[in-house]
Queue: 3 jobs
Job 1
Amino acid sequence: MDSLDGLLLVNKPKNMTSFDVIAVLRKKLNMKKIGHSGTLDPMAEGVLLVLLGKATKILPYLENTDKEYVASFVLGKSTKTEDIWGEIIEERKITPISDLTSLCQSFIGKQKQLPPMVSSIKINGKKLYEYARENIEIERPLRDIEIYDIQVLDDHTIKVACSSGTYIRSLIRDIAEKSGNLGCMSSLTRTKVGSFTLDQCYDLETISKDNMKVLSIYDALSYLPHVEIENEFDIKNGKKIHLAVPYDQVLMVKDHTELAIYKRHHKDVFSCERGLW
């Protein structure tokens, strides 16, 4: 029986899928009800939000969260996957980049991004990487993303703060292209998801029920405005309530315990969107 409810911050290692991590944790923690938010590619590492027990109910509320990454890249070649582990499409002589910082700064802001062909984006009910496996080239819709900041750490490494849905592989492809080069990603570490950072994460091999701290659902949803109530009966029965608040979505709590997520129905009337008891 699941005995843990909350958010576990895991440092996903390389050479594992996010699903592999969940499979390992199911055995380690003897739990069936486990999920994750924000898939990382097998060769990427870093912050993975793992939801335990009834915390799996809040998965939709952690998916569209801002991210931060540290990524390295190589110039002079492009691959099918837009990283060094993919099949090489083209190689070209490298054009030196005189001012990488200014180049990267030019990508800050809202923009449209062409996602990689090898990705999990669905088109017509089928994931892009499934088309890629069949050597079927399909038109990819541009995606709205935002780059908040890019810091140059060295000649081939950058730190990127960005909106959810941003592909760092594609960003590196575009940075290289703007410099007159081909380029692809050579490493990727997710250092932050929302307010959760890499230094808060547990390495997979050291996780056990005795040595890990599981964040409560209350803490995991700390970004939502909280509304403290006296009578929880109406909330637990999913009734609509009147709230004089400027927010469209709130976390209903009693004595610092989460009860439900409510959203504005109309005017000052709020309805239950997700019960958390």
Job 2
Amino acid sequence: MTQSARTIEPLSASPQPDLATIKAKMKATWEDGDYADFARYMESGAKEILDGWQLPSGKHLLDIGCGAGQTAIPAARRGLHVTGVDIAANLVESAKRRARNEGISARFDEGDAEALPYADTSFNLVISLIGAMFAPRPELVCSEIARVLRPGGALYMANWTPRSMPAQMFKAVATVAPPPPGVEPPVLWGDEDTVHERLDAKFTDIELRRINYPQWQYPFNAGRLTELFRSHFGPVKRAFDVADEQKAQQLFKQLQDIFDDHGEYDGKTLTITRGELLLVCAKRR
């Protein structure tokens, strides 16, 4: 058992959550703020991760949690037949608009990672860059990915680990806006033992590797970055929206310290150096 698995235990013994309410809240959260603009600071790193996967052109690819297309659109440029799906309707519209503006042929749908709106064996490849990990029922995510993948098809994921900067950020946010009871922490998708438990039954040739998110830089300091998260990133924005003045001040200081502790600032640019990801590569049995 890895250290991260020991420190973040699944919540299987908790009461069954009200999933309809949870999903509605998740959808509203990711639609809040301006994630399309927020994600542009991470797009260079997303492209580098995509390049590292070396996906073969001409294949049918599904991007789960596609956001505003920051991974799907570069994949389409590489000659893949791309479909992106996301729970946030406004992000899907942003992806469609960007694809049109850039002359990219790609399909984008609003949909749920736990109930994908596609026929069995529709895709050769499924990717998810920090997307599917947030769905509340990972067993259904695994089942749906396996269902839409053709035998021999490949799954590629990049998931925050329990010790990453985003994991610490979500812990701080949870002190103001706690997650619903009965839902497992998303960062368990960044734990090797947990990934094997979830994928072994339907996948083979599972390869896992930890990296730091590449090229993750902001042209300002940690205080300005905290403001960016507060105004643009749905989960953080929602926490500030419900916090009273004292809690908001405490959360701001906590986040600023987390960004400082997990990055390096040279007076002009803040580079996040401890944004650890678990890269997952697996083949459908």
Job 3
Amino acid sequence: MARFVFFVGTLLAAAPAWSDWVVFVDGQRTEVRAVELTERAVNITTMAGKRWSVLRDAVDVEATRAANATPPLLEVITVIETPPVAPPPAPAELSAPPQLQTIVERELTLLPEADVVRPPAPSTRPYRFSIALNGVRGHDTLQFTDTNQFELFKEQAHIESVYSDPRPQGFELGVQYRFAGPFAVGATVQRFENDRSASYNASLPHPFVFERFRELSGTKSGLFHEEMAVHLDAVVTKTWGPVTLEGFGGPSWFQTKTEVLVDVLYDETFPYNEVVFQGVEGRVLETQPLGYNVGVSATFRVASIVGVDFGVRYSEARAKLAVDQGREIEIDAGGLAFGAGLRFLFP
């Protein structure tokens, strides 16, 4: 018997110190890693490390305390003398008993709203209002020609100017409101600003020799050009997980300010066979044409309220710049433009 008691003591010393017991009011009991009694609930850590919380009414508190107290040696011997029980599975394979899981789920539904820890809302929830801020780059270069003809020494003089722009760059700020399902309305303000250049070629009649023209040519750079557009769009959206595709279109209002060459300045001396270049005269002209726009965009949501936005838009309007009485220059406003930036999404 002494050897048997020594063997039992050895087993007790080798038993895991982190094993506890939970006894429920219906008499069921289960082994857990830790038990914490609070004023309203019982916090349980299972053998697999999962955390559960149940109301105190579901647990026999006194029996649980008694089960976790150190038992007398006689009770331990009695337990050891019972037929051996199969060893429990490895801690990694342990899971909450079905009856414990059922009680936990039932009791958690009875907890007050403040005591329930809810997961954060998924990042794919629909949004109703959005703000987009994108950098924009035009695809096409703007080119147009202006020809100025006037009478000089009883003949027709003319000055031809050819304007060319690099691909415009700018930004756009847009807002959108989704009012019903996939349907939304949006407004976007685009602004481009760049310097343009113009090459000119003047053909001036000779004051004494008929049909003898004096030529003058050159290039003028650094001419000012600014274009702002307001697009009002009807929008249709389609969402797949974190990706939202949009198609849009509507009217556009443009405000174009551009500098053009209105005259070439020169000087001449006898015998007037050549002219001496003195400079060019430029003037900033403004026009406000109406047009339209269509486009598509894609937004990839990377956080709860932040997405990366890519889009392409084509807009067009025909504009006329009034230089002098009876003299106009026709230019195209808008064009194909690509944009990329951030979109902020709000429920």
